[in-house]
Amino acid sequence: MQIGEVAARTGLSLRTIRHYEETGLVVPSARSQGGFRLYTEGDVARLMVIRRMKPLGFTLDGMRELLAATDRLDGHAGAGLPEGEERQELLESLRGFEEAARRRTADLRTQLARAEEFATALRERIERAERAEPVRTGRTGEESEGGPHSELTAPD
Length: 156
Known about the structure:
2 strands, mainly alpha, single chain
């Protein structure tokens, strides 16, 4: 398939796919006579791995390392399937990536929960303002309970 179809299937832009090609993360399996990049299902699967790693903060080098390990484990590196110590090292590398992905996913869940708390507090503040409820102030003119924006901050 050509790059446009790959972009539609992966949700990646043409520019991003070309960037991944330039950095060596994915290489089109072939080129047409007219010079168009041609991709296989395997290339699409590789791009999907990259797309899934990106929001977890993996670097291009990290992505390259993971892809090299999976290529080697799958026997795509041209030397047959790894055995013995090499196989164990590759599996250990994948376990490290899995743990990093789990940690980052947990961090993102925490960030999302805080963002949702903030959005809810903001919505409540807007609703109060729409009802024209005055903010209560103390004798000195200072607002009570932590100031005018205290309801907009989520505890850490």
